Write the C-alpha cells for this entry.
Amino acid sequence: MKVVVNVSLKEGVLDPQGKAVHHALGSLGFDEVNGVRIGKRIVLDVDGEDKEKIKERVKTMCEELLANTVIEDYFIEVE
Amino acid sequence: MKVVVNVSLKEGVLDPQGKAVHHALGSLGFDEVNGVRIGKRIVLDVDGEDKEKIKERVKTMCEELLANTVIEDYFIEVE
C-alpha cells in the first residue's frame, strides 16, 4: 500500500531553504509570492491490508526516524 | 492562497536518500516497508483569487525554478 508522509518545519522554525527560494522567485518576477516553506514528502510502499494498523506503524516510523518532532510536524496519508 | 507543489524524482531515477531511509527502517524492524522515495513538498503563500491563473503561474515557477524537469516530476495543489 502507498503511504505518504509529509514532514514540514513547525511554525516559527526558520526555513533558510524556503527563504532562498522565495528570494529567487522574487528575482524571477514572481512578486505575488508572500512566503515559501519547504518540507519533505516521503512515499513509502508498505505491506499490509489494514489501513489503521499501517497508519499506526508509520506513525511509529515518524516518531523514531522520519521526523524530528522537536522542530518538525508531520501528517500521514494512506492511499 | 496556499499552494502546495509536490516534487518527486521520476521513476527510474536513483534515490540514494530514500534507499538510506529504507535501510534504516529495516534496521529498526520495520520489515513491511518495500520501498522509500523522498521528494519535496513546497508550500507557497500566493496572492490572488483566480485559482486557474495561480496554478498557471505556479506551473511556470516549477518549470523555471522549483523542479528539475529532466529528472523530477511535480504536481500542484491549490487549496
Q: What stands out?
A: Chain A touches chain B at residues 6-8, 18, 21, 24-25, 28, 30, 32-48, 57, 60-61, 64-66 (CB under 8 Å). Chain A has a mean pLDDT of 98. The two ends of chain A are 7 Å apart (CA to CA). Chain A has one domain: 2-78.
